[in-house]
Specification:
The protein is an alpha+beta fold and 168 residues long. The chain is built from 3 helices and 9 strands. Strands 1, 2, 3, 4, 5, 6, 7, 8 and 9 form a 9-stranded antiparallel sheet that branches.
Length: 168
């Protein structure tokens, strides 16, 4: 198995960054090689990618999702791919996005690309484009605040409330 691990600090609050990341169907706007992501249900996504001229479609399952903390996934068929993205609040206005992915290169093109760290660079570039997107937007394009634990979808978590918005 090969592994990619990348982080980027984003000048936005953690909730805004997490909320935007849950908009999976928007991934093609900042992820190279991703043609389409279709959300099939709360835990399943269908990806269409084109890498080195080869188009593939595969399904991925979200195996864990904790609002403002983590989203972990694995492929259901075909590709041997797992990963997680975590969100760490560095201060009130800065969030670290950390991506870890493991995958098994299957053909000679993927093996050569892996040896040349192509995916490593692609993930770094994707994170930089995500940072540009979320720092340029005044509001996130949506949010899903549900939890997923061991294939079970839980009720939505409310967005964190500030002390000034609570009734006393």
């Amino acid at each position: 198995m090969s592994r990619v691990e990348k982080s980027i600090d984003v000048a936005q609050p953690i909730t805004k960054v997490y909320n935007q990341w849950t908009q999976f169907e928007d991934f093609p706007t900042f992820m190279g090689g991703v043609d389409e992501v279709e959300q099939l249900d709360a835990r399943r996504l269908r990806w269409t990618t084109t890498v080195a001229g080869v188009t593939r479609t595969f399904d991925a399952e979200i195996i864990e999702q904790k609002p403002d903390e983590q989203i972990a996934w694995r492929t259901e068929d075909g590709e041997d791919h797992t990963g997680a993205v975590t969100f760490e609040q560095l201060d009130e206005h800065t969030t670290r996005v950390h991506v870890v992915m493991s995958f098994r290169p299957e053909n000679w093109v993927e093996k050569v690309g892996d040896a040349l760290n192509v995916l490593d660079r692609r993930v770094g570039n994707d994170l930089a484009r995500f940072k540009d997107l979320i720092e340029d937007e005044t509001l996130e394009t949506g949010a899903w605040r549900g939890r997923i634990e061991g294939r079970e979808v839980k009720a939505d978590d409310p967005a964190p409330r500030s002390v000034s918005s609570e009734r006393r």
